Every structure is written in structure tokens, then in C-alpha cells.
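haha ok so turns out i had the wrong file open the whole time. this is the CORRECT one, sorry everyone. sequence first:
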Amino acid sequence: MSLLPLRPAPAAGPEMVSLGEVMLRLDPGEERIHTTRTFRAWEGGGEYNVARGLRRVFGLRTAIATAIVDNPVGHLLEDLLLQGGVDQRYVRWVPFDGIGKRARVGLNFTERGFGVRSAVGVSDRGHSAASLMAPGDVDWDRVFDEDGVRWLHTGGIFAGLSNGTAALAREGMEAARRYGAIVSFDLNFRPSLWADHGGPVAAQRVNRGLAGLVDVMIGNEEDYTSALGFSVEGTTESYADLDPQAYRTMLEQVRAAYPNARVLAATLRTATTASRNDWSAVALAADAFAVATQRHDLDILDRIGGGDSFASGLVYGLLTGDDLRRAVELGAAHGALAMTTPGDTSTATLAEVERVARGGSARVVR
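then structure:
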């Protein structure tokens, strides 16, 4: 039995679109945000990172639906998006008012962390162009009917930006379901996004309101609790060491509450230090339950984007086969590889992901 009722891939144009904000990530490298004098600029965003991974690593045609300010900073972001290969046909360009009072490009200052010093993210994204998006800003009939897109990905970060973005996410998800496209949603709970408008109570209200429209639900072990109110029974001392059946029980409870969800997946991470994590993942679909290889003491260079890379590997596996174990292994392997390089987005190759998913060693490749 097929895990997902997939539409045929379009002959041309994107087969998957992500709805979300793309920010400039300013990275101080080995320095600290408050002491550095130089930053390296990357592009990044929870929903976008999935589209970029699917394009650059897995070779699928993908697009981003977002809004960007029409000024030199916005065009720097555009240039980074061009390098990532993600189609920009659904980008809404917003006029610049001269100082960014009405709309601007969001910034994300990110320290990678090391050892006992945690990774740190400081967002500067108020009044960003994407956060001002609202229903009607994306032509969903064009996306799903004219262009034949068969997969929509969005998540709790975009839905948490404003009431307008939450409503736009709902509009897009409802349109995808009308046209028979698959909807994936990464819960991605971020306390800082909700601190000024309702906190965890508001986050659960919004995410629960969207969850019934989801075919593929993704999150880490804490997202299911913070965003939906479900939890894993047992100690949280080490998520990766818990009995996988505890996660199966939780995911079955989520599916019972949201029966449209055909596939549910969770990444499992224990941060022993910022540069050494335990890492694994689980997934549930119909009667199948899959557990990815448990990687203890995984060396981490930059953990930001590991969950997004898991999501893109999982989506690729679901698009290209009906083996749940393969899909979750590809996701976990891609997430592990993404955390070995700097930046939000992955620089892995499909061959590398498949080798790691098969249990390949880190011996030199000649």
C-alpha cells in the first residue's frame, strides 16, 4: 500500500513549494555575536531550508513562496537564493519605504556554540516582509492547478510570525488538499516567536488549528509537546536512549487526534555538549514504525538546520518510494551530514547521504 497518494510530477516547473520566511543569517564563525567584527552572510529559514535541500542535494525541482523587500539587502538575499537553485516564481517583492519602517529583510544572528557553550540564535525580524504576508498574497490556483505542484511544505515558524501568516498557511494548506497535493508541516516551536503574542497557549491554538490539514507531520521530541500538547512517557534525560516504543505511543496518540496525518516523524536529539550530540529519528505510517540508526556522540560543527535537513531527506524518501525505514534513514543521515558544515543549509551530495544511511564509515573517499 502506498504511504502517500502522490499526484504525478509536473513535466516542468517545481514539484514542491515551501511557504515561509527567508532571512539573512549573520554568522560570526568561531567568534561571539557581541565581540566579533566580521560576519559571514548566509540565507536560511526553517521552511526554505527544506526546499533548498531537496533541490541541491536530492535534485528535485522546488520553489519558495515568500516576500522580500525590493532593496539592495533584499537582492543580496535573492542572489543567495539563486545560488541555492530554488525557484523564485512565487516570491512577492515588497516596495522599500527608504528606512525599513514598514517592511524589511529579517536577520538571524547565530553562534554555532562549542563544548559547554550552547549555540545561540538572536532574531531581528520584526516587520519583515514575510511576516506581513496574508491570505491572497499567493496565487494558489496557479501553484497547484496551472503549475501542477504536488507537495506543499510549511511549518510552525511561518505560522508563528503573525496572524496573517497563520491564515495564509491555512489558505495554502486548504488549497493543496483541494488539488490533491501533499501537505507537510514542521511544528518547529520557537518560544521567541510567541513571546509577544500569547506564548505557548497561542502556539498550541494555532498549530492545533492547522494540524488537521497535514499529511506529513514533522517535529522534534519537544515540538510535539510545546506545539500540540503531546508528550513521551519516561525520562527526558536522553531522548535518544528512550525506548522507541514510547515515541510510537505518542505518535499514535497524535494520529488519533489528527487522522489525516498519514506519516508522523520525530527527530531525537540529546545535546551532551554543543559539539557532541546523540541523534536519531522515528516515523510512523499506517501500521509501520521505523527507527533510524542511533548515532551516539555525533560530532557537531553547526547544529542549525539539522532538523530541516532531516525533513528534506524524509520528504525525498517519501516522494521516491514506499519504504518508511528508507525515508527515515535518509532524513537522519542528511541531518547528521548537514551538521558537519557551517550554515543553515546542507552541502551534502545524494551519494554521501545514501552512503551514511547505509551505515558507511567516515574513512577517506578517494
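The mean pLDDT is 93.
again sry for the mixup
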